[in-house]
Write a structure and sequence with these properties.
CATH topology of the largest domain in chain A: BirA Bifunctional Protein, domain 2
Low-confidence stretches of chain A: 200-205
Oligomer: homodimer
Number of strands of chain A: 23
CATH superfamily of the largest domain in chain A: Bira Bifunctional Protein, Domain 2
CATH class of the largest domain in chain A: Alpha Beta
Largest interface: A-B, 71 and 71 residues
Distance between the termini of chain A: 15 Å
CATH architecture of the largest domain in chain A: 2-Layer Sandwich
Number of domains of chain A: 2
């Protein structure tokens, strides 16, 4: 991206929100644009980071044999009435509804009903299962307590997956497959997402785990052991004889090592069992020729929430620990490097353009005119590329000063080395 | 994709819709799932064809220097009231509205208002323009006359771009840049999209062209010259002295060569001028230090409509001209080849799996058990891969029978040749 064509001028940020400094940088610099409480527009870089997350999540689910599909966001009330959840969601006030000439719809808050309808006509026989469908799409909730810019909004991006099996054994296998994919996703995005046995809440059903990221901006509390990086649900402490239970169930001898810590729920996986397939009468013909309800699992990742966690985790701090900028991890950054020529030197401008072109879409070129060198450096650390390349007077032609924006480490390298690195 | 994990069983299609035979195949085979009038879910392949379209459109717009962003689908009524369009859209009954605790929203039917708000805080000076923002996202309309499955629905995927310039000259340049990108997109997706000078309709403004694809399923009528592959708006015939006008304006001597033909509007580009920037008071500081309203252009491509046109254009016909299957063009097909082993032969099954793995995500493997070879061949032509590879008894090991599914042409080739082709 050439900054001269991007509409990005010099950016100023100050008095950052103490809880959410990085998201506040995004907002103050116009990389996030607020349209109302919990409703945001995304500028190029933030949108592309989100797309990289989608790509990584999709790749790992595909590897696990899951099948990507797209379910409608505009959902007829009829199927929600079949499952019996329409009135419940309406009463709770979380549903955003739409009236049309063809009756009432909701803007999808989740898609169990839609996926059961999707599967109903396809998965008629035991031969067609197991299958796990997933989609990555916008979800909607009349969220009254919006929070932390992207953490909880009225509209948010979700990955939601749904497994269909013939029995509980099959469900256990599908559940494990997705759970393993989650752990690989966590690895790739560079956030420790710890599975914690959870209550099922309003979703109902059997086994379930939440994937928690320990962070001061979390709104959940977990019991966390720094040493083993494992966590427990705080509800465990309410059990009778919880010490004995912990020993038997988890092999934990010393609960006192577990401290209460704030955490963000980034994912949630559930065994639904036959709840939806029975209420919605979705069945398959088993080997014995009999109709049976599917055993279902459902699996979610809050992609815009994950995006928020990644941004907050990608801050540049000054010597006093104050957040002063953004440095995205290389795997997630849509542009890996920002190239800044000192514009008074024509030769350097030309070399910067050449380097930009050779990096073929993976770089930002700051070719804006009439902006000071100092302001360009600052802007780079607001946009968040992992590397910055300065073509300045101090280094000879064919070389650049390369800075790792997260660590501040600088070195003089050749242009060929930059291309190899990126 | 392994069909054994995909939930796809043997598919039957018959009595195809005469107007929309290919979309009817998608529906009957469960590749499209209808949830209500004009509301569909997409199975894996159809969704991925759509994603390929998004990718191609994005690549060409990026090449033209356009900047991808994401504007909200949930839009506050306040900005629509600023532009003066809220009541108009409500009166026409095309808006799907949502009540929330924070007031009334609409589900975005278009995004001129949202993009003006997006630009307002960013493009403060002549130094920040020209810029063209675009997004590819779901749009919503209370469409009463839904049509042709994907052609006109209540929810549909759109690419919408918006240019911001300092004056009419700049607007002309931005308009041409996007127009050229449209022609490159048409080239790459393999559909002749002909620009036709258009009326601006409800959008208001200056110059505008529609990009039309000549097709019997179109709901528009244009004047089309088969020889030169050019087209004119039928409204021209209503002009006084239209023959003289055609000669002077277009150099056309013989209007009788132009025949009335049905066409699908796949894209539309408009010069809006200062209409929205004035009504919404969105201005920049020009070189002379004075505040001026932006000159805007807006540009749309109906992505789900384009998807429908591409599918209808990708039919396999029998000797009587009857549509019997689908063969997607190679550039757009997410899976280029379907591999079918004759399952009675273990060696062939093994080779099929090896070929599948070497093709690294670009192939479908029909590894379903208990399904006849004939049914597998039929299913392949319903899913629509451009090629089919049969590992059968008739060809020696290490070779396959390769069929071009569109032309029916068959040849025996080595596995290495298949890999090279794909």
């Amino acid at each position: 991206m050439k900054l001269s064509q991007s509409g990005i001028g010099t950016m100023r940020v100050n008095n950052l929100d103490e809880m959410y400094p990085v998201q506040d940088i995004l907002l103050q610099s116009g990389q996030l644009v607020q349209y109302g409480t919990g409703i945001y527009g995304y500028s190029n870089i933030v949108m592309l980071v989100k797309r990289n997350l989608e790509r990584i999540i999709g790749e790992e689910l595909n590897k696990a044999g899951c099948i990507e599909v797209q379910l409608p966001t505009l959902q007829p009330d009829t199927m929600w009435k079949k499952s019996g959840r329409w009135n419940k969601y309406i009463d709770e006030g979380v549903m955003l509804t739409v009236e049309s000439d063809k009756g009432t719809f909701c803007m999808a808050p989740t898609a169990e009903e839609a996926v059961v309808e999707f599967a109903r006509e396809k998965l008629k026989s035991y031969k067609h299962i197991p299958v796990t469908y997933y989609q990555i799409g916008e979800k909607y909730r009349n969220e009254i307590r919006t929070r932390g810019y992207l953490l909880r909004g009225k509209s948010f991006l979700m990955m939601d997956a749904y497994s269909f099996d013939a029995d509980l054994d099959g469900l256990d296998k599908s559940y494990k497959k997705v759970r393993d994919a989650y752990l690989r996703i966590a690895e790739r995005v560079g956030l420790k997402m710890i599975p914690v046995v959870a209550d099922n809440g309003s979703m109902g059903g059997k086994k379930s785990e939440e994937f928690m990221f320990v962070s001061p901006i979390g709104e959940d509390t977990i019991l966390y052991d720094e040493e083993t990086k494992t966590a427990l649900n705080t509800e465990i402490l309410e059990k009778d004889n919880y010490e004995q239970y912990l020993k038997e169930e988890y092999g934990i001898e010393d609960i006192s090592k577990y401290e209460k810590r704030k955490a963000i729920e980034l994912g949630h996986i559930f065994q639904l069992g036959t709840m939806y397939s029975e209420s919605m009468n979705a069945k398959f013909i088993d080997k014995d020729g009999k109709e049976k309800p599917f055993y279902m699992g459902c699996y979610g990742i809050g992609v815009s929430r994950l995006l928020a966690a990644i941004y907050e985790n990608s801050c540049i701090k000054d010597e006093n620990g104050k957040v002063v900028g953004i440095a995205l991890p290389k795997e997630l950054a849509p542009y890996k490097i920002q190239i800044i020529p000192k514009i008074e030197n024509e030769q350097k401008v030309k070399q910067a353009l050449e380097l930009y072109e050779r990096l073929n879409g993976t770089a930002i070129l700051d070719d804006r005119e009439g902006i000071s060198f100092g302001a360009k450096i600052k802007d780079c650390k607001i946009l968040g590329t992992p590397y910055m390349a300065i073509l300045g007077d101090k280094v000879e032609d064919g070389k650049v000063e390369l800075e790792n924006t997260k660590t501040g480490e600088k070195q003089v390298v050749t242009i060929e080395e930059v291309i190899k690195l990126i």
